[in-house]
Amino acid sequence: MSTVRSIWRMMTLNKVGFLGLLGVLFFVLMSFVGPYFVPLDTQTKVDKIYQPPSWEFWLGTDSEGRDIFSQIVHGGREVLMVAFLAGIMSTGIAVTLGALSALAGGWVDSAIMGLADIVLTIPHFPLLAVLAGLIKLENYVLLAFILAVLAWPSLARAIRAQVLSLRERDFVEAARALDLGTRHIILREILPNMVSYIVINLIFAMTSAIYAQVGLVFLGLVPFSGKNWGVMLSLAWTRGAIFYKNSIWYIMSPVAAIALFQLSLVSLTRLLEEIFNPRLRTSV
Amino acid sequence: MTATSLSQEGRTFDPLSLLMRLTRNYMLRRIFIAFAKIFIVVTITFFIVRLMPSNPVETYIAELMDQYGYSYEEARDEASALFNLDLEQPLWEQYVQYMKNLARGDLGTSYRSRGTKVSALIARFLPWTLFSVGTALLISFSLGMLLGMIMAYRRGSILDHTLTSLASIVSAIPNYLIAMMILVFLGVQWKIFPITKMRGAYSPGMKPSFSLAFIKDIFFHATLPIITYVLTTVGGWMLAMKSSTISTLGEDYVTVAEARGLPERRIITSYVGRNASLPLITQLAISIGFVVGGSTLIEFIFVYQGIGQLLLSSINARDYPVMQGVFLIITIAVILANFLADFVYGWLDPRIRTS
Predict the structure, then answer these.
(1) What's the gap in Å between the CA of B54 and the closest CA on chain A?
(2) What is the pLDDT of residues B84-134, one digit of tens each?
(3) A181/chain B closest Cα distance in angstroms
(4) Cα separations in angstroms, B188 against A248, B185, B192
(5) N or C, which end of chain B is more exposed by having fewer CB within 10 Å?
C-alpha cells in the first residue's frame, strides 16, 4: 500500500518530472531487456529499402531494408552504459576532490580548484576530438573515463561549497561536541545533505556524456564496434539519408531516441529536486 | 597603506609582495590569470601530443622510415623541419623552442598541405567561425534578455509557461541534433531553405570585399548555423534573465523608484534591466566556450568552412601540426573571451572594481 502511495506522491509532486522518470525507465528497460525480446534484424532486403512504418516494420526500414525499430532497441545499451559509467566515475572523482579540497584547505584547495578551472576552460568537444585522433578510443570504459575526467569540476566546486558551509553548521558542531568522530561527521552529517547535488549532477554528467559520445561516434572519430544510436546516425549521414524524402525515418529515429532520452533525464532532475529538497515542497 | 610603510620601510620590491600588490587590483589579476591559463594549456597540449602512446612525431618518423626508406637521421631531420622543432635536443629544449615559436606566432607547417603554414590555414578559417558564433551570441543574448524580462513581468501567464517549457525542451536536446532536425525538416522535407546553395561560407565565385552583395551572401550562408546556435542558447538566457529580473524587482531601489513616480520605461531600462543583466555576463563566458566547442559538429553538419571544419579535416588526415594549432587557438579564443566577459563585468559593476 505504501509503495502505491509513494508513487502517487511522486506523480503529484511534479508531473513533468514524473514523465521524465517514466521516460528514463522506458529507455533503460528497452535498452537492457528489449534486446532479448526483439531480435536484431540483420537481413538485407533489397526490395524493402527505406520503407515507411508499417505493421511489419514499426519504424520503417533503413538503407538495406533492415528493421529500424530493432536497431533502436539494440542501440541504446552502449550509449546508456558509457553515460552511466561516465556519470558514476565523474561523481566519484568530484566528491573525493571536492570534499578533500574543502576539508584540507590551504595549497591543496588552491591546487584542486585551479585544476578544476583549467578543465572547465578547455572546450570539451574539441579536446575529445583531438584525443580521439591521437589514441584509439576503442574501449568504452576508457572513453567513459576520459568523459569523467572532463566532467568532474562542476560537481567538485558545488561539493566544496557545500562542505565548507556545512562544516560550520549547528548539527556538525553538535556532533563534534558529542565527540562523534570525523568519519561519523562525514558519513552521517555532511553527506546526506549533499545527496541532492550528487544525484542531480550525476544525471547532468550523463547528459553531457551522451552528447559527447554520440557526437564523437557520429563524426566517425571513435571506431565503432557495435550498434548504437550514434552509429545509426553516422551511417544514415554518410549514406545520404537526409536528402531523400523516404529515408527520414532512418535518420530521425536515432535523433528522436537520443533527444527523448536526454529530455527524460533532464525532466527527472526536476522530480529529484523536489524529492530531495523538502523545503521546496508545497504539500507536506 | 599606513604612514609607517611609506616613510620608514619604503616600498618593498621583493617579487612576492609585488605580486600580492598587483593581485589586489581586479583587472590586473584577471589579466594575470588569463595569461597563466594560456600558458598552462599550451604546455599541457605540447606534452600530451608528445607523450601520447602514438606520438605523432614518432609516428611520422616511423612512417617515413617504413614507406620511404629513410634512415632514422633523415626521417628525424624531415620531421624536425615539418614540426619546426629540433628533435635532436631533449624534450625540455624542444618545449622551449616551441614556446619561442609560439611567441613569434609560428605554429608549424601543415603535414597534408606541404608548404602551408598552420597560422595561414587558421587565418583563413577562423574569421568565419568568429563571424557566425559572434553574430549568433549577440542575437541570442539580446533576444534572451528581452524575452526573459517579458517573462518576468508577466509571470504566470500563458506566455511565460509556454516559453519556459520551450526553452527547457530545446536546451535539453544536443545542439547537433537540432541542427540535423533543421536540415531534415526545414531543408529537405518542407523546403523552406535551399540548403544546397547554403553550403560553404560564401558562394563560389564571389570575391571577398565589403560590397553589400558579399555581405548579404555571407549572412545567407551563415543563416542555418546562426539559427542553430541561437535556438540552442536562447533558452538558457531567457531563464537566467527571468530569475534575475524577478529577484531585481524585489529590490528596495526599484520600490523607491516606483514610489517616486518615475516613468515605467525608465524603471525598466535603467533600474531593473541594467541590474538584472549583470549575472548574465558571467553566463556569457560559459556560453562562449560551449558554442565554440559545439561549432565543430555544427559546421560539419552545415558544411560551413569554419575552424571546426578545419579541426575535423585535420584530425581525419592525421595532420598533427594543424590539429595542435587549431586546438590551441580554439582554447586561447575561449580563454580570451572569458577574460573579456570578466572585463565587461568588472566595468559594468563598480562594486567589483572597488572591492
Answers:
(1) 6
(2) 665 666 777 778 877 888 887 777 777 777 777 888 888 888 888 888 888
(3) 38
(4) 9, 6, 8
(5) N
Residues 316-345 of chain B whose Cβ lies under 8 A from any Cβ of chain A = 316, 318, 323-324, 326-327, 330-331, 334-335, 338
Q: In this predicted complex, what is the ipTM?
A: 0.83
Express as a percent the part of chain A with pLDDT over 70. Answer: 89
Residue B109, beta-bridge partner list: B117
Q: Which residues between 168 and 197 in chain A have a beta carbon less than 8 angstroms from any beta carbon of chain B?
A: none
B193 vs A: CB within 8 A: no
Amino acid at B219: F
Provide the H-helix boundaries in A182-228: 182-184, 191-218
State which amino acid sits at residue A104: A
pTM for the full predicted model: 0.82
B206 CB within 8 Å of a chain A CB: no
Confidence at A282, pLDDT banded by 50, 70, 90 = very low
Lookup result for grid cell 601540426: B321
- Helix, strand and coil percent figures for chain B, each rounded to 5: 80, 0, 20
Give the closest-approach CA distance of A267 to chain B in angstroms. 9
Over residues B202-225, the mean pLDDT reads 77
Report whether A28 contacts A268 (CB < 8 A): no
| Number of helices followed by number of strands (H, E) in chain A | 12, 0
